[in-house]
Amino acid sequence: MLAVHFGAGNIGRGFIGKLLYQSGFETCFVDVNKEIVNLLNERGEYSVVLADSSQEAFTVKNVRALNSQEQPDAVVDAIANADLVTTAVGPNILPFIAGLIAKGLRQRSQTTDRPLNIIACENMIGGSTLLKEKVYEHVSGDEKAAFDKQFGFPDAAVDRIVPNQQNEDKLMVMVEPFYEWVVEETKLAGEKPPVQGITFVTDLIPYIERKLFTVNTGHAVAAYFGYLFGIPTINEAMANSQVYELVKQALEESGEFLVAKYGFDAETHAAYIQKILQRFANPYISDEVTRVARSPIRKLGPNDRLVSPAKQYAEVVGKQPVYLVKAIAAALLYDYQGDDEATAVQTTIQQNGIAAAIEQYTQLDQNDSLFQAILDQYQQFQAEK
Ligand SMILES: NC(=O)c1ccc[n+]([C@@H]2O[C@H](COP(=O)([O-])OP(=O)(O)OC[C@H]3O[C@@H](n4cnc5c(N)ncnc54)[C@H](O)[C@@H]3O)[C@@H](O)[C@H]2O)c1
Ligand SMILES: O=P(O)(O)OC[C@@H](O)[C@@H](O)[C@H](O)[C@H](O)CO
């Protein structure tokens, strides 16, 4: 079995690649990072180390890699012959890989009617659905009808904290022991991909909202406040009682609406939050706040981990969130020079003012009470700085 995986980065190698190997797949990574592509081809294997007291190491074998910029035809051939296509490139990159995927699917549909699933493993609602839309921008009307029959784009939720790696061995990845990969069964084409570790569900929305609005919401709160307080890593931020409390309170707010909206058991959800707080504090992981805070424009988006739970809390619970609002204000203050989106947000604020920036990034209406709460909180934080 052949899997083509776009993005041989932290989650690609540390999570998806490992599960694919353990499930009997040969994995062909597709990336633009020459060094990683070359090393994967030279060695054909890499190690994944668990970030816990065991430091258990596992060798992932049967891997190779293609450079999509230099070997696009080989990528098309690989997709045409694949049994599964997955991605972990980041939501903003999906539009850039869509053209190549469209070509691969076209070649495949011309040679076989064997079904194929394309699963985007990105932190967003509807990642595979977005990828499908972007792929379909490259295909004709007739092709779309044929593609609809042959290809599935099931949405997915993936959870495993994999920090930026600082190992001497450039291929080695250190990962937390916990992982979860949930895939929407109803959008599959053909059989379920035989990947050990995937949980198939009929409706992904509760799972992705629970994951994104708990793990990623809490993570973002720790990162933006960690950064504001001058703390470099997430576990160090969690050791700060103020940051810990801000994270916990924000997760209690998002949890209140998730429990009300989806009927999750309140105690089970409280235990889920508790486990996540422990994962963030894992002393065996050094995860920079700037990784977790990366791409604040994406994270301030209306359907992402800060604004969506704040809006849904207001709608479902009927109260104004306090801690989620603080987190949004902290994200608006994120001015890390090494992050293009952070500098773009700061430029917008300087040139157009904070109200225009809130409107632009969160897409909230100026008359929305949440909008005013964010504005007030931002101004209060500015005054305290
Ligand atoms: N790291 C985590 O803890 C984690 C956990 C769950 C989900 N995710 C999600 O997984 C995705 C990837 O995150 P990551 O942390 O692995 O990032 P990463 O930066 O480590 O990996 C992304 C990889 O994509 C490659 N890439 C960039 N442009 C490309 C292109 N045009 N074609 C092919 N490859 C390209 C990069 O070179 C890099 O190797 C994101 O959507 C992220 O939200 C990350
Ligand atoms: O990958 P991002 O930028 O969407 O979010 C940063 C982190 O919160 C994220 O990568 C987590 O580590 C991961 O989602 C854990 O499952």
TrEMBL record:
NAD(+) binds at residues 3-14. GO terms for biological process: mannitol catabolic process. Signal peptide: none annotated. It catalyses: D-mannitol 1-phosphate + NAD(+) = beta-D-fructose 6-phosphate + NADH + H(+). It is an enzyme of class 1 (oxidoreductase). InterPro entries: 6-PGluconate_DH-like_C_sf (IPR008927), 6PGD_dom2 (IPR013328), Mannitol_1_phos_5_DH (IPR023028), Mannitol_DH (IPR000669), Mannitol_DH_C (IPR013118), Mannitol_DH_N (IPR013131), NAD(P)-bd_dom_sf (IPR036291). Its EC number is 1.1.1.17. Pfam families: Mannitol_dh (PF01232), Mannitol_dh_C (PF08125). Residues 2-195 form the Mannitol dehydrogenase N-terminal domain. GO terms for cellular component: cytosol. One of its GO terms (molecular function) is mannitol-1-phosphate 5-dehydrogenase activity. Residues 203-381 form the Mannitol dehydrogenase C-terminal domain. Keywords: NAD, Oxidoreductase. The keyword NAD applies. Belongs to the mannitol dehydrogenase family. NCBIfam families: PRK02318.1-2, PRK02318.1-3, PRK02318.2-1, PRK02318.2-5. HAMAP family: Mannitol_dehydrog. This is Mannitol-1-phosphate 5-dehydrogenase. The lineage of its organism: Bacteria, Bacillati, Bacillota, Bacilli, Bacillales. The gene is mtlD.
